[in-house]
Amino acid sequence: MSEAVVMTNLNQRSVKDLIDLVLEGAKEKQRKFVESFEVTINCNLGKDEALRGSCLVPNKLDKNLKVAVFLADDNVAKKDAVLSAGADRVGLQDLISEIKSGKVEYDLYFAQPSLISQLKEIAQSLGAKGKMPNAKVGTLTDNIESVIGDMKSKAVFFRSGKTGLVQARIGTVGMSSDQILENLTFFVKHIFGQNKNPSSNKNYIKSIYIKSSMGKVHKIENLSELVG
To answer: How far apart are the C-alpha atoms of 34 and 88, rounded to whole Å?
Structure first.
């Protein structure tokens, strides 16, 4: 953890109590923006193992992401479908030209697998920001119109660092503690399910910390509440 202060809970407070502490701390100092509710999971990964992907949590994250879709100009039916599903922008060469000029203005970029070869010239630009359409993340798919709505409002994206830390935004401090608990539980179980070596289940998740964007860190002592 990079934060200087880690609140260790000697009395083994429940996860719900710790969530309430984070929310109460956020209320004490009113910000000009709505703080995110964040989780860091310390995973026991193998030397060459890495995690990357997304999952759809039960409750909306209180912030819709801006979405662009790469689509052939003559695919009118598909264009209408993805716009109706919630896409903010649809295009191909115009989007590619923008990105080549340095404008990466959307949170998510979707594409069909058949178009991936046409995106090679912008792969580095998007990849550097973690925005290149990717099947593991769910943004490289033929069924864009089926997933785009939930991906905009419920998708939690994650990627492990070299030390095995997985950091993610699972909500905002404007949500209820029950909603955050549901999202947190779902996300932790999703990460737990990424373990490729079931014999190491007991030690796969070494520790979990929660905080708001600008708040103190709280360590969850009783991991069994989340992973069973």
So the answer is: 23
